[in-house]
Amino acid sequence: MLFSSMTFLFVFMPLVITVYGLSKREIRNYVLLVASIIFYAWGEPRYLAIMILTILVNYVGAIEMARFYNKTKRKLILAATIGVDLSFLVYFKYFNFIVDNINGWFQTSLDVIDVIMPIGISFYTFQAMSYLIDVYRREVKAQKDIYKLALYIVLFPQLVAGPIVKYHDVCEQIDKREVRFANVIIGFKRFIMGLAKKVLIANTLAVVVDNIFAQSTDMLRQGDAIIGAIAYTLQLYFDFSGYSDMAIGLGLMFGFKFMENFNYPYISKSITEFWRRWHISLSTWFKQYLYIPLGGNRRGKLRTYVNLFVVFLATGVWHGADWAFVVWGIWHAVFIIMEKALGWGKDEVRTWYGRALRHVYALIVVVVGWVMFRASSLGYAWEYIQVMFGIIDNHGIPKFDYGINVKFALALGCGLLLSMPLMRNILNVAYERKVLRGAINVWLFVLLFLSTISLAASTYNPFIYFRF
To answer: CA-to-CA distance for 380 and 263, rounded, in angstroms?
Structure first.
């Protein structure tokens, strides 16, 4: 079930909020747990068993770790339990990829079942692993109430697309939280903003992006390739950040405070800064549970570079079972390591033109990376990038419109504007004035109306991160 679906907006969400609000405090966790199971089972009931098994494995693993003070035994239990978690992830997400590569490399013809990946498995697996590691480090106590652990893993606002919530950040909220009317209103407004970003901007851009990337590269003009890359850069951001906004808003409605997942990543002046602003919950997860345990930057420059390479290689693999994602991860690793070696970030660039050049550099690296991310294959990505930079000149081919119209131009313009904090700053100032605050609230309901009309009028409602 998508947040941006009529069923969720007008049936599931109002019903759950109403039942939750009318329930006694003692049973609200159970209400959310049942709602989350229904939410997940709505789209893929056959994979509910995998999620339940994940809960059971991690519950038992953490309880067993808590029984021992011997570090070796605790490590063995941690390794075994995480091994089970990763085996589920590897099988359901990477099995087809592994078989296809074996067939390609060894000229075999292995004919095996085509495994379908359960929605959200990358997200809830990482959440389960963060719980185990937190218990191993004795940062939190093992959760003895299996229903509370289940709620943490399957809580529907962040179940299928994040933010990736770490157990130590929400364990106290699971046990004790307050639902305040003011926070419910703030959460609802945040949800509307996320819905509008997803439906009015990302979905509109997606039509042109799909049309352009469906075209063979020998039939693409340079301008069209550039438009496709820029539009996808904005589509991905508003699709994913919009969904994160909806998740954070829903969390507030139920008394949970989730971490921010995006902080205007396209204003970054380096790739290092970009990853501090993009998918923050994932980058902090890798920092806390992979980069620092590997040694971080504490064991010399060479080891630091190796650790960074491993982290971004893992980031690419996490995003998908395709060599394009692997190369995308390596692409970012190369620039992160280069910036580290050059000492970027130690001293702020003082001149305006220096900052501008850094910004242009970061955007080019990011946009080229997104072409790899979106392309159907590495070969296609390479040819597309050559067309973008004029290395391949498809002069004289017929011009297609790809669905580029006034609606697309408006979405592109709004996307460019809203990817910078300018509008946020204006709204923050305006919200201090009572009259303007009322106008903003009216505008939010207009956005809700427009989003609803758009959803009702179209069956095209993709969500990119369901792939991961």
So the answer is: 31
pTM: 0.92
Domain span including residue 416:
183-269+349-467
Positions annotated as catalytic residues are: 319
Same domain for 89 and 233?
A: no
- The answer to whether residues 168 and 188 belong to one domain is no
Please say whether the beta carbons of 133 and 62 come within 8 A: no
Give the pair of three-digit tokens for residue 64: 């067993």
Express each pLDDT in 9-63 by its tens digit: 999 999 999 999 999 989 999 999 999 999 988 877 888 899 999 999 999 999 9
Which of 131, 156, 176 is the endpoint of a domain? 176
Domain-terminating residue out of 148, 176, 204: 176
Residues sharing a CB contact under 8 Å with residue 214, sequence separation 6 or more, in sequence order: none
Q: Work out the widest C-alpha separation in the chain, in whole angstroms.
A: 73
Q: Give the DSSP H or E segment for 43.
A: helix 28-43
Does 118 sit behind a cis peptide bond, omega within 30 degrees of 0 on the bond before it?
Answer: no
Considering the domain boundaries, does residue 294 fall inside one? Answer: no
Cα distances (angstroms) measured from residue 271 to each of 122, 240, 265, 312, 407? 24, 19, 10, 12, 32
Contact 127, 167 (CB under 8 A): yes
For 405-451, the pLDDT digits (tens) are 999 999 999 999 999 988 777 766 656 667 777 788 888 899 999 99
Predicted confidence (pLDDT) at residue 350 exceeds the cutoff of 80:
no
- Map residue 27 onto helix, strand or coil: helix
